[in-house]
Amino acid sequence: MRLRSGLLIGLFGLVVVLLGGWFFTIAIVLLTYIALLEFFRMAEFTGIKPATKTTLFSCFIITISTYLETIGFLDREIYNSILPMCSVGICTWLLLQPKSGTISDIAASIFGLFYLGFLPSYWIKLRAIESTMDNLSEGILSFESFSNSTGLYLTLISCLLIVASDIGSYFIGKSFGKKALSPISPSKTLEGLIGGIICSILVATFFGFLLNWQNPILIGILYGMLVSLMALVGDLIESMMKRDAKIKDSGTFLPGHGGILDRIDSYIFTPSVIYYIIIILKYFS
Q1: C-alpha to C-alpha distance for 180 and 196, rounded to whole angstroms
Q2: Residue 113, domain extent
Q3: N or C: which end of the chain has fewer CB within 10 A?
Q4: End-to-end CA gap in the chain
Q5: Sign of the torsion angle spanned by Cα atoms 190, 9, 155, 115
Q6: Count: domains in the chain
């Protein structure tokens, strides 16, 4: 059951990334909707009462508006105003409740907006990066004749690097792991972290040569290491929240895998970092 679920998840992810556009956007809306429900469920286990419906709607608005901005339908200034306006809306909703909200209620709601609304929306920005940045075929991260598909390649490669990192950290950690990495997740080891980083770097370097990037080894090391570390951060953040809520899994949506948040936690922090690293590299190239 676990293997079957894993294969279906991988196939679903591949199809929506290849299709892009509204298919990819709606897929992110659905995944983050379920994940946010799971996150708020964990928060409620600790006595917090977040603005669930308002935050869910706000995350929907952020995700859809991100896609509309990438296709030029929404002005950038209007797009930039959406996150703060949604934050104000959430706080206002909490203020209007019969029972006054607490600092924890506000913090959990705003963090949910950022964690499962704003950050995942960068997958849409990354997938459509060639529409928002000029001359991506030039510079240190060159795709040459593939410049019109840069977003597709970066999205697929980033996802593959996360998978490679997970596989490497699991097998190396299981075989050679001795030194615990963090008390938050005792099963994770320093040796597993190193194994995950190495696997991610190897895969990134392979694609660097395959796609004729300038300095494929240097970019492969930077790209692979960043993705692996961001995947780890996402994993540990969710582990910390589950530990606080005293639960093993965020949900039961996926047989053998737990909840949606358990599956996408490694993918939450990655796209924003990669997106801005590309901007920085292009600026200095």
Answers
A1: 15
A2: 2-284
A3: N
A4: 48
A5: negative
A6: 1
